[in-house]
Amino acid sequence: MTMPQNDVALMAEQYLHMRRSMGYKLKQQGQLLLDFIKYFQRSGDTHLTSSRVLEWATLPAGADPVWCYARLGAVRPFAQYLQAFDPLTQVPEQSLLHDGYHRPAPYIFSDDELDRVLAAADRLTPSFRARTYRTYISLVAVTGMRRSEATNLDCSDVDWGQRLLTIREAKYRKARQLPLHPSTVAALKEYSGIRDTAYPHPKDPAVFLSTRGTRLIADNASQVFARLAREAGVIRPGFRHQPHLHDLRHGFAVKTLQAWYRTGVDVGPLLPVLSTYLGHQNPEATYWYLSGTPELMSLVSERLGSYLAEKS
């Protein structure tokens, strides 16, 4: 299928409208994308290709790598969006250019990949360590907690009756409470019973204990998770930054947004709710977590298409 160039320009306008409705301002990025669309139209290409994007991103010759990376970053999310409509669209890899300063792109674990990581955790020894990491990783994945928030949890922070977790040692010293699903409560309660049997008099009042009876250390947990991900075959070829524990927090945010779009609710008013749940000071801090995935872009484009059809 060949997509007329005017249609690509229209898709760019719709894409920017969609992203801005989610709270992104996209002032410079939006202008860069429209500049690229003009370049693309002059090229005569019928499909967006990685080589054409890279050619444009590195203009003018000798440009600062930071600037080139910014130009690539302005077009890449649009390419992901466009690919949902034109399967021949190529999405340029971020690894094509490096600026040395950019925040590493997060990795969204699929359910199957997370299951494989948990299976690798089950093989840890001794068995108490395996159970600790299975429960710890699962809690981070289903709540979007920061890794340090999970390791800082004390037993007194769990309200079994109300099914609530109280996060006290949060970023910016801002406490919050997280409601838990009954299945999460059951898994935590099972782990707590195993922990209390193994360590009836622990050195720390922590929810998650090491095999020495001390509080689990966040940096150590991150290293163990990275190793488990490698053993599970979850890797990013060509990327310096491999899947890591904090990616589970990003995945929680993206999957929450996907679930909202599937149910047909108005997502805009719910973003501050997600921001509060994640412990951000303001919604702007949440937007970075909501970078597009192919599935998310497809859901958003469907919603936008319905909206535009109603307006026409």
Automatic annotation (TrEMBL):
GO terms for biological process: DNA integration; DNA recombination. It comes from the Bacteria. This is Integrase/recombinase. Residues 104-302 form the Tyr recombinase domain. Keywords: DNA recombination. One of its GO terms (molecular function) is DNA binding. The keyword Coiled coil does not apply. It comes from Arthrobacter nitrophenolicus.
